[in-house]
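Hi R.,

Here's the chain you asked about this morning:
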Amino acid sequence: MSSYILLYPLFLPLIAGIVCLLIPRKGIKEGLSLGVSLTTFILALIIFTAKELVFTR
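And the predicted structure, written out as C-alpha cells:
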C-alpha cells in the first residue's frame, strides 16, 4: 500500500471543494461532490480494513 494513502482522504475533498467553487453549474457540482464523497468513503474502508498498516518514521 502506498505510504501516501492517508493523505488522499484529506486532500481529495479539499481539492474537490475548491473546484466546486469555480464551477458555475449546480448539477456538475452535485455530481462531483457525490463522486468525491463516495471515493473518500471507499478509501476509508480500504484504509481501515488493511492488514499491513505499520507506523514508521
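Residues 3-49 form one domain.

Let me know if you need anything else.
M.
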